[in-house]
Design goal:
By secondary structure, the protein is an all-alpha fold. It is 71% helix and 2% strand. A two-stranded antiparallel sheet has the order 1-2. Helix 1 runs antiparallel to helix 2, helix 4 runs antiparallel to helix 5 and helix 7 packs antiparallel against helix 8. It is elongated and about 80 Å long.
Length: 259
């Protein structure tokens, strides 16, 4: 391209080539990739970085995240392991967490546990990592261990939605019905329309043979969920993530009854 702009009284018109733009640095490409979220554009930018610098830990980490979100778990593991190998301290908390997620999906449970434990050393991922470990404990029917891990998760982040809800479930599975009900009430005080906490309250009041209270909770659940299935699906999905398939099925059956 050429510039033809001239000022009044300037020398005769002539064509001046524009200065070619400088290529973006790797750091600039990484910022653009993060802003592009998990898109094809982000992947192209990250591959450009890696074509220039094969050991760029941040690029491997971001690419691993993309592959996890795209359910391409083998590719995710490859890049996340490279990220950890190249930079074991900087972004490793995030890399370990996503590595654990990919390993779970491929059935590498023991490796996933190790990855999540490593992620607990990072303050930014401690709560989520303990939650992930609790989900694995639930799936192995180690309910006391799950409860302890959820308590650790909430120490790191008291607002963790799933950890608060599943802690009610863990206490229920450990046979402490009244304690579970008290904690459900505590969660509902902070979040009155918490569907899973209400469902747990319904299960607990039913277990205590308090039919009046149980029917009242069912009415509250119906008022919140209405004719939509999304609340029931979200609650069932939290149970499913913890390997609590019977609980998930019970919630979905209630959705059919309420429809």
């Amino acid at each position: 391209a050429y510039s033809t702009d001239i000022k009044r009284g300037a020398a005769p018109l002539h064509l001046v080539p524009e200065k070619p733009s400088e290529p973006l640095s790797n750091d600039e490409l990484l910022v653009k990739a993060e802003n592009a979220a998990h898109s094809l554009k982000a992947m192209e930018l990250l591959k450009t970085v890696l074509s220039r610098e094969t050991g760029n830990a941040h690029a491997h980490q971001l690419l691993g995240e993309i592959y996890v979100n795209w359910t391409m778990y083998s590719q995710a593991i490859e890049h996340l392991q490279q990220s950890i190998k190249r930079d074991p301290f900087n972004n490793s908390g995030k890399s370990y967490y996503y590595l654990g997620m990919a390993q779970v999906e491929l059935g590498f449970i023991e490796q996933a546990k190790e990855s999540f434990w490593n992620a607990t050393y990072s303050s930014g991922f401690r709560s989520q990592a303990y939650l992930a470990l609790a989900n694995l404990a639930f799936a192995e029917k180690e309910f006391k261990k799950a409860q302890s891990l959820l308590e650790n998760s909430l120490q790191a982040n008291s607002q963790n939605y799933r950890s608060n809800n599943l802690l009610i479930t863990a206490i229920r599975y450990n046979g402490e019905t009244e304690k579970a009900l008290a904690f459900a009430e505590q969660v509902l005080k902070a979040d009155p329309i918490n569907h899973l906490a209400l469902w747990e309250k319904y299960l607990l009041t039913t277990k205590l043979n308090d039919g009046v209270a149980a029917n009242k909770v069912l009415e509250e659940l119906y008022q919140i969920a209405g004719y939509t299935d999304s609340y029931y699906l979200d609650t069932a999905n939290i149970y499913r993530g913890a390997g609590l398939y019977k609980d998930a099925i019970n919630v979905l059956e209630q959705a059919d009854t309420s429809a």
